[in-house]
Design brief:
The protein has 3 helices and no strands. By secondary structure, it is an all-alpha fold. Helix 1 packs across helix 2. It is globular and about 35 Å long.
């Protein structure tokens, strides 16, 4: 089966971008979130990249929406 980069259906905090990247590379999502936070804090470009990724990355086929 071919691996595809999608937003996470189960590991979401904001949009599922970090969770999706972590699932794709098979690593802990906390590590991805820490790296992303460092990019936002030190480089300043992380926030813009996150917004673009949230808009461009497709939803996981397992995602059914917010269940409250």
């Amino acid at each position: 089966m071919e691996k595809k980069l999608t937003k996470s259906a189960t590991n979401r905090k904001i949009a599922g971008v970090c969770g999706g990247i972590a699932e794709y590379f098979n690593i802990d999502p906390t590590i991805v979130r820490l790296i992303w936070a460092a990019c936002v804090a030190f480089a300043g470009t992380g926030l813009l990249l996150y917004i673009i990724a949230a808009l461009v990355m497709p939803e996981s086929p397992d995602y059914t929406g917010y269940n409250g």
